[in-house]
Every structure is written in C-alpha cells, then in structure tokens.
C-alpha cells in the first residue's frame, strides 16, 4: 500500500531524474556526488530556482557510503587510475565519474578519509553560517591530520543530515507482556530471552551496554568498567540474530520481538507496519551524520565556487531543514536552531525526528578511538561472540 509519504517519494524519484541532468561544465558550476535518498528532490528544485543562467548544478546519487568512499580512493590514486590493472573497456572496466566539488561521506568514514589524504579541509570562509551550527556538530568535524577530534583542528566536513540508533518492537507482543521498551536496560529483561535482533557492530553493542551502565559510548578504557563484561555476556544470551542487513526481517515475521538498528532503516518501515513502534532510549543513543566533504587529488587543491558555498548555506535554511527532516528518514543538524514555529507539525509531532532535548543531550557521536582502545573493543567483542 502507498501512503502519502511513499507517494510523494515516488513522484520525487521521477523529478530527481530530471533534476540530475544539469551540465557541470561552467566554471561557476557545482558537481555533487551524494548518497541516494539523503537530499529530497523538492530541495534540489528550490535550489535550482535560485541559480542564475550562468550557474549550473550537476548531481549523481550513489547507493551507499562505501561506494562514495571508494570513489575518493579512485580519484586520489591518479596513477593507479591512469595505468590501472585493466584498460578502459565500457561495461567491463568503466571509468569513474569526474572528480566532484562535493561528496557525501558518513562521519564514521571521516578519520579514514583524512588519514588517506582523500579529502581537503574547508576554510571557514567556504561555510556560510558556520557559526550557527551547533557546537556538537562543529566538534564532530574538527580533526587533526590523523583524523582525531581536536578543538583546534581543521574543518573536514559540513554536516547536513543526521540520525540515530533506535529500538523498534512489535507492539502486539509487548501488549501481551504488559509493558513497552523505553531504555537500553529493557533489552536485558528475562521475557526477551532469545527475542532480539541487533546490528552487527561492536561499537554500537558495547556502546549501548556502556550507556546502560551510565557510561559513554566513547569510553577509552573498558577495563575501568568492572560490570561491562558480565553485562555484555548477559546481553549475548538475549540476542537471536546479529546482522547489519537483515536485523529487521526477523521482526517482521515475528521470529523476534525487538530489533536495534539505524533510523534510516527503521523509519520507512514504520509507515507501512502499524504494529511496529520505535523509541529512542531515554539514557541516550548513538548518533550518525552525513557530511559534505571536498575530494582531494595529489596534484591539486581547490577552493569552492560561489555556487558551492551557496549550496552549503542553502542546506541549512529553514525550508531545507523541513524538507530534509520530512523526506530523507533523517534530521537536519539545524533543527534546534530553527524557530519552533517554523518547523512543520509533522516533524514536531514525531519524537523520532524532533527528539526530546534531554535525550538528545545524552546521545553521542561515535568518535574515533586510539589503537589501544580500539583493540580493547575488538577483543571484548570477539570474546563475547565466541562465548
């Protein structure tokens, strides 16, 4: 069945194909490679209306962040691209698209991109409205040359969309139990033994266990948390499936009663499955963000054009805040900077998009860890999964 949202998105797909046909040859043009579904067609149409006749916009959507990261690697390694293992043959070894001015990258890929010199930092002058961006988002993209969070670091990305890790559950099953999940601690309740499906991510699973214990997702030394190991092993007994791709299917067929996963997967599911409900845990959750980054080449550094700066600023305007939050299964980082009277009711009335401020403050980005800390997480994860 099609609801209003899916109908608008299907129309938007047709419109997007038309909007993506811009010619990017002008010196005052803008070429963007973006994550499919992270910018609504309605927003692109509005932006095109603001361009002059000499300004051009060319966009190409790619299916996932891994593809986008691979393009950064391809562009950067020009020697490998020019003298690659295979000659250029259409359909066999197709050439990559030309280097874009801006590209979508997830914050979890940012450290790797910086360390590999795949992207360039932004100058503050290239980011109109930077001072309006909430401090937590500014902190997310300020990094040193090794990709570590640094207060005095350079700006390596411009956030335009974010989302959360959610609990989604079968309301019918929980009505029989007489309670509904509200926080991470509920995952340990005896009634849910062998009834959970969770994303297969060490930082997420160990992190939510840390949140249950009143700790941070970014705890650097796991050995300091005496209860962590026993709690994590207890959670292991509750979980029936770990998967990054198929953690929702068991919920749909009632093989499990509760799943933990990403809002971009869960929000579309809620529209067509009335028996499913989702909640952001009261003790806070993990946050992710999609960013605009500047691709880097070994032989070239570039300054953003005026139309590129205009695009960055446009993505933070009130109309864009509403469109991104309504039609991309994510939220704009400017949502709390926008006067509440200017936010669409459909957003304000959705606690999964317009998140309670107290819960939002308790939620965290997954920051890069030191090698020693990362090894602790990996070792504990392997020990738990093999138990």
UniProtKB/TrEMBL annotation:
Q: Does the keyword Endoplasmic reticulum apply?
A: no
Q: Name one Pfam family in it.
A: SBP_bac_6
**Does the keyword Metal-binding feature in the UniProt annotation?**
no
Instruction: Give GO MF terms, alphabetically.
Output: polyamine binding
Q: What is its main location?
A: periplasm
What GO terms fall under cellular component here? periplasmic space
Q: Which PROSITE patterns match?
A: PROKAR_LIPOPROTEIN
Q: Name one GO biological process term.
A: polyamine transport
Alphabetical list of InterPro entries matching this protein: Sperm_putr-bd
- Where does this one sit in the cell? Periplasm
Residues annotated as coiled-coil are none
Q: Per UniProt, which keywords does this protein have?
A: Periplasm, Signal, Transport
What name does UniProt use for this protein? Polyamine ABC transporter substrate-binding protein
What is the organism of origin for this protein? Aphanothece sacrum FPU1
């Amino acid at each position: 069945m099609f609801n209003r949202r899916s109908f608008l998105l299907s129309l938007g797909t047709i419109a997007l194909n038309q909007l993506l046909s811009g010619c990017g040859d002008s010196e005052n043009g803008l070429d963007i490679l973006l994550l499919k579904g992270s910018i609504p067609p309605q927003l692109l149409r509005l932006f095109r209306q603001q361009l002059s006749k000499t300004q051009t916009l060319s966009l190409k959507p790619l299916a996932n962040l891994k593809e986008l990261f691979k393009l950064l690697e391809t562009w950067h390694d020009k020697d490998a691209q020019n003298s690659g293992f295979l000659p250029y043959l259409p359909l066999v070894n197709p050439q990559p698209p030309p280097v874009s001015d801006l590209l979508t990258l997830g914050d979890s890929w940012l450290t790797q991109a910086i360390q590999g010199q795949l992207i360039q930092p932004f100058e503050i002058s290239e980011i109109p409205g930077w001072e309006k961006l909430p401090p937590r988002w500014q902190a997310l993209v300020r990094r040193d040359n090794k990709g570590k969070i640094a207060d005095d670091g350079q700006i390596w990305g411009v956030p335009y969309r974010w989302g959360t890790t959610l609990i989604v559950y079968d309301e019918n099953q929980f009505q029989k139990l007489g309670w509904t999940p509200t926080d991470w601690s509920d995952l340990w309740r005896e009634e849910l033994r062998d009834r959970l499906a969770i994303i297969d991510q060490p930082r997420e699973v160990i992190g939510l266990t840390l949140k249950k214990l009143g700790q941070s997702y970014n705890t650097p030394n796991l050995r300091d948390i005496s209860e962590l190991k026993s709690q994590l092993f207890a959670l292991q007994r509750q979980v029936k499936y770990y998967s990054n791709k198929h953690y929702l299917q068991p919920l749909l067929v009632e093989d499990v009663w509760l799943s933990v996963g990403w809002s971009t997967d869960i929000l579309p599911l809620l529209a067509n499955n009335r028996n499913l409900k989702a909640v952001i845990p009261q003790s806070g959750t993990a946050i992710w963000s999609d960013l605009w980054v500047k691709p880097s080449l070994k032989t070239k550094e570039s300054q953003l054009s005026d139309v590129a700066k205009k695009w960055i600023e446009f993505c933070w305007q009130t109309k864009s805040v509403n469109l991104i939050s309504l039609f991309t299964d994510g939220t704009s980082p400017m949502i709390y900077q926008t006067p509440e009277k200017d936010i669409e009711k459909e957003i304000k009335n959705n606690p999964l998009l317009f998140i309670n401020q107290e819960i939002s403050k308790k939620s965290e980005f997954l920051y890069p860890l030191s090698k020693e800390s990362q090894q602790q997480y990996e070792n504990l994860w392997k020990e738990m999964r093999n138990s």
